[in-house]
Amino acid sequence: MKRVMIKINVSVLLLVLASCSTNYRMTTCVYKDGRISREVYAKADSAFLAGNRSGNPFLFQLGDRWMVENLDSCVKVDFFGEEGELNVKAERTWKAEGTFSFFSANEKWMKPLAEPQEKLEKHFRWFYTYYTYTCDFREIEDKGPIPMDKYLDKPEQALLFQGDMSGYQGMNGVELKSVLEDAEEKFMKWLYHTQFELSYEVVEYFLQRGGEAAYVAKLKTEKEEIFLGDKNRKEENECSPEYVCTLLDKRYDTLVFTDLYKANQKEMQKRYDEKCVTMELFDNQIKFELAMPGELLSANTLLKEGDRLVWKVDAYRLLGGSYVLEAESRAMNTWAFCVTGLLIVLAGYGIIRKR
């Protein structure tokens, strides 16, 4: 998946990510008393369904507080145009007000998707009680050695990754298309530069381990020149350790680097994959559904299924910043209306009697 994603442009990238994603359905229900119930659905293998919990299909750890239930059969769910099958459910209810987190990630690199910070605020206003819910999926911090800001400014990142047009108000479709195309190109340049840096680090490590002191010194001082001198950057959409070795052989008119790669191919690829482990987040997408108590007042999504709000959450949306889901509702305090009505009746009766 990682190698496929590197080789394509951004517009195709979205389709590929959706088609080969691991799908999760997450339903959240906020109750009037402040309780929150959550169900997370996933696709588990036969071993997990038979009771072997080592192959956990969820991004988070399953502790004693989670009730896990195998579904009778695979349930088909529409994941934004793609049909996914789910066969296991994890459920938990939480009495929460203030900031909290339902989850503990299986691995550190999973945290941006697996450990959102949630907050529920409940405000009593006599006739109504207001509920404000937020779920903050944090920005992916480990994006590699090249800062994304070097290629894309914040408004461009917000537009490209989260569809935030606040920095482009007043533009028409033609103008926006031009902005998006420019942002796409900058994103691909950043991605290529990031791959170059990671691959270069891998080659340096194995070169140093092999005792090639003369070339080690050159690689340290000439890295920027080597990157800028790569004439095939526009044609090459992937910059792997193998490609960097080929690039270095051409520069220094040698076969030292190609031989180095051939001798350490599996180790070099493994080390490169470890450096790119965060990219595995892009294999996952979450269909986040939320039911709020009472009357919905506002939400930062237009998607709905029945009485539930719906958001799509994936790692792509976390590249440029945190992705925050927000909703506000109010529930009528029936007793407050009754008490108020009774007080008005009593007050009116008192006035009439006095007269």
Task: Break the fold down into its secondary structure elements and pairings.
Elements: H1 2-6, H2 10-19, E1 22-30, E2 35-42, H3 46-49, E3 67-79, E4 82-95, E5 98-100, H4 111-114, E6 117-125, E7 128-137, H5 154-162, H6 173-209, H7 213-221, H8 223-228, H9 241-252, H10 256-263, H11 265-275, E8 284-291, E9 295-299, E10 304-305, E11 308-314, E12 323-332, H12 334-354
Parallel strand pairs: 1-8
Antiparallel strand pairs: 1-2, 2-4, 3-4, 5-6, 6-7, 7-12, 8-11, 9-12, 10-11
Give an overview of the whole structure:
This protein is an alpha+beta fold. It folds into two domains: 9-142 and 281-337, no CATH class; 171-277, no CATH class. The protein has twelve helices and twelve strands. It has helices spanning 2-6, 10-19, 46-49, 111-114, 154-162, 173-209, 213-221, 223-228, 241-252, 256-263, 265-275, 334-354, and strands spanning 22-30, 35-42, 67-79, 82-95, 98-100, 117-125, 128-137, 284-291, 295-299, 304-305, 308-314, 323-332. A seven-stranded mixed beta sheet has the order 3-4-2-1-8-11-10, with helices on one face. A five-stranded antiparallel beta sheet has the order 5-6-7-12-9. The chain is elongated. The termini are far apart.
Write a concise synopsis of the structure shown.
By secondary structure, this protein is an alpha+beta fold. It has helices at 2-6, 10-19, 46-49, 111-114, 154-162, 173-209, 213-221, 223-228, 241-252, 256-263, 265-275, 334-354; strands at residues 22-30, 35-42, 67-79, 82-95, 98-100, 117-125, 128-137, 284-291, 295-299, 304-305, 308-314, 323-332. Strands 3-4-2-1-8-11-10 form a seven-stranded mixed β-sheet, covered by helices on one side. A five-stranded antiparallel β-sheet has the order 5-6-7-12-9.
